[in-house]
Amino acid sequence: MIFEFKNATAVKGVETLFSDVSFVAQPGDAVAVTGNTESRKALLLAMLGMRPLKSGWVSIDGEPVTATTGTYFRQFIAYQPDSLDFEGLTVQEVAKSQFALKVNADYAYSAKAVAAELMRLGVADDCMQKGFDEMEEAVAQRASLTLVGMFERQLLLLDNPTSRQDEAGCRLVADYIMQKRSEGVALIVATGDQTLLAVCNKRVNL
User: Fold this and answer.
1) What whole-number distance in Å separates Cα of residue 95 and Cα of residue 166?
2) What's the rounded mean pLDDT across residues 180-186?
3) d(Cα 46, Cα 55) in Å, to the nearest integer?
4) Percent of the chain predicted with pLDDT > 70
5) Distances (CA, A) of 75 to 11, 83, 107, 172
6) pLDDT for 175 beyond 80
């Protein structure tokens, strides 16, 4: 799949969040989106069809992404927001809820498989029974990224995925992005983190 922004402009009231943005994300690309935090988030939401553009367009394989078509296209996209609002749920509970979604009907839940995925981002398997609010924020953020990335989506949208990480955590996230690139996944990463910028092959500054 080819994901594209073409001459895209988004506004909030009289404020321009980004203007005349054009780029393409193909399989194996990691596009780093830098600039104002709110503008970066608006761009990710536009890719999901959840934020209207003032002008220009967003498309997947040439088909416009809109509020109407976004519902269909979201089956090919996974999104990790910057906020972690799981209301005290455990990692296992969130994982099970993800597997229960209609879009993930082809995947059978396996606690062992989820634990193996968590280990890829340095999250111990005993965290499966912990609530997200019981873990260190850095660990909770990486666990969230694992649950977003473990399904075979063709595009990952990551909003500030190292905001709670130390240097070692940033390296783990960067390695994860590189691994996803090698698997042919496209990523759009809203970040200003130099470690992540180094593993992205494209950059868009808003």
Assistant:
1) 25
2) 95
3) 12
4) 98
5) 26, 21, 13, 26
6) yes
Closest CA to 89 of 49, 47, 128, 48: 128
DSSP strand pairing (30-34 vs 186-190): parallel
Across 83-93, average pLDDT:
81
Contact in structure between 63 and 69 (CB atoms under 8 Å): yes
The yes-or-no verdict on residue 105 having pLDDT over 70 is: no
> What does pTM read for this prediction?
0.89
Indicate whether 167 pLDDT > 90: yes
Across the range 166-172, mean pLDDT stands at 95
Q: Which residue has the tokens 């799981």?
A: 86
**Residues in contact with 102: Cβ distance below 8 Å, sequence separation at least 6, in sequence order:** none
Strands 15-25 and 202-205: unpaired
Q: Which stretches of 100-136 are DSSP H helices? A: 111-120
Are 62 and 2 in contact, with CB atoms under 8 Å apart? yes
Given a cut of 70, whether residue 77 has pLDDT beyond it is: yes
For the chain, the distance separating the N- and C-terminal CA atoms, rounded to the nearest angstrom, is 24
Residue 32, Ramachandran bin (φ over 0: left; ψ between -120 and 50: alpha; else beta): beta
Contacts of 161 (CB under 8 A, 6+ apart): 80, 141, 145, 173, 189, 191, 196
Report how far residue 188's alpha carbon sits from residue 206's, in angstroms, rounded to the nearest whole number: 13
Q: How many CB atoms are closer than 10 A to CB 23?
A: 17
